[in-house]
Design brief:
two-stranded parallel ribbon; alpha+beta; elongated; about 35% helix; Zinc-binding dehydrogenase; 2 strands
Amino acid sequence: MLAAVASHRLKPVIDKAFPFAEAREAYRYFQQGDVFGKVVIDGA
């Protein structure tokens, strides 16, 4: 699957990104159910 993603240059749809310090808010946002794409928690 990774080869197919790389060769076709597919990118995931990101709905919203949260910093690690807001992980609880990210989970609450995800639980609302009105999400289109991925909810990302940035740990960098």
